[in-house]
Amino acid sequence: MLSYERLKKRTYEVLEVSRADDLVSRIVDRLLIILILLNVVAGILHSVAWVERDYDALFSYFEIVSIAIFTLEYMLRLWCITASQRGRFKHPL
Description:
By secondary structure, the protein is mainly α. The protein is built from three helices and no strands.
């Protein structure tokens, strides 16, 4: 079982370091890029009147899920930043 500090360090490695040989890091990076691109496409499609009218509920659900994922990612980045060996401060704020 992972200890608290090891989990924090691993989270930092996945979200911040993004080594080419780390499969989990590459998957997370690619999923975030795909989510960003889908949000751009959704924003473009949402500006078309008939698409907005017919699929407004779907866009709303997608927006809520996207915000939840990006909020979780941001909170994880704030939580794990203290695992970095760089810098002299050990507090994210």
